Amino acid sequence: MARPTLQNAPLARSAMAYVLAGGRGSRLMELTDRRAKPAIYFGGKSRIIDFALSNAINSGIRRIGVATQYQAHSLIRHMQRGWNFLRQERNESFDVLPASQRVSETMWYLGTADAVFQNLDIIEAYDTRHIIILAGDHVYKQDYEVMLQQHVDAGADVTVGCLEVPREEASAFGVMHVDEKDNIISFLEKPKDPPPMPGRPDKALASMGIYVFETKFLIDQLRRDAADPNSAHDFGKDIIPYIVKHGKAVAHHFSRSCVRSDMETAPYWRDVGTVDAYWEANVDLTGVVPELDLYDRDWPIWTYAEITPPAKFVHDDEGRRGQAISSLVSGGCIISGSSLRRALLFTGVRVNSYGSIENGVILPYVEVGRSARLKNVVIDSHTRIPEGLVVGEDPEFDAKRFRRTEKGICLITQSMIDRLSN
């Protein structure tokens, strides 16, 4: 595994990971009507938040807090089921921190910085040396120990995790303008003309929303920011620009700490924040050698593992053959006389006879009726696809019935199916 090696003792054991998981992710449309973006299913078994949490555990961090807000029930339930193995008697902790109006009865979390500030008493009680702020809605594998080590070696006030992106695409991000030593000169929020990296005029450094601080320093900054009536109380808008101007801010390149198996050729990071991006990232996993290796046993993605029977394929008649080609099929699925091609099925999906699914992302406990033909679809959990439904062959008809994206992907939910019969 292409993982950086370190000579020093791990800093992760004296660090806390604080995961910001309160965002809705409105560009995922109906997928986030009932759940926050970090709770969205990904990869057949996991949820998006499992990647940030697994990175923390695999890096050696044993103090974790997760701030939730929007539609938090399914996210909290998932974490209670899958992340309850950390034990206080081993100096470990896992705290779920819903917006609880701790500062004022009229105030929920106002911004990302406020989501940390409102829980300062919990952070102070753990008395950790460092704190790493993480976004809970991205898919990637990263060793945070490497980033912590750079922070200490550089004597930085804040270290910002950064992606190298094509300069023409950087306008969608917060962009770091850095010098030759990766000191951040300025932080620009979605600039029209992103500053290039030194010596690389075609690339820019985009913020990943990952920040390392000494805990005491961050506490001081959050208290200063909370007292500022003109602040939006946000890391990207307020905290980081202030430190860039008044302290020492350093950029950390994701390529230096990304974790790759022998099967992964390039650093992998995805913001699956649109239906198209979500569909593409999941369907890509069905490839012979996908860009993201979920089979890497050296860096497992921890999650709640539901107990299910094995997947089952039945019938072997012409036109009624249970089969899957270039597909991922999770436990509890039954493929009864239908064919799958480049499909990803989550737990407990039932596909009945004489149908087909191609380029499909099928969330848990969907039932697909007989003779249904589905192509280029994302189907929300617990949806019942009626017998004979055809999707992906008539774009205009699909757009009238379902949520159809510009790239031709159809998102289907149970409420959309219910409207078909009205």
TrEMBL record:
Involved pathway(s): Glycan biosynthesis; glycogen biosynthesis
Cited Gene3D superfamilies: Hexapeptide repeat proteins (2.160.10.10), Spore Coat Polysaccharide Biosynthesis Protein SpsA, Chain A (3.90.550.10)
EC annotation from Swiss-Prot or TrEMBL: 2.7.7.27
Membrane-spanning residues: none
Keyword Transferase among UniProt keywords: yes
Molecular function via GO: ATP binding; glucose-1-phosphate adenylyltransferase activity
Residues under site feature: Could play a key role in the communication between the regulatory and the substrate sites: 69, 108
Reaction catalysed by this enzyme: alpha-D-glucose 1-phosphate + ATP + H(+) = ADP-alpha-D-glucose + diphosphate
The keyword ATP-binding is annotated on this UniProt entry: yes
Sequence similarity: Belongs to the bacterial/plant glucose-1-phosphate adenylyltransferase family.
Name of the featured protein: Glucose-1-phosphate adenylyltransferase
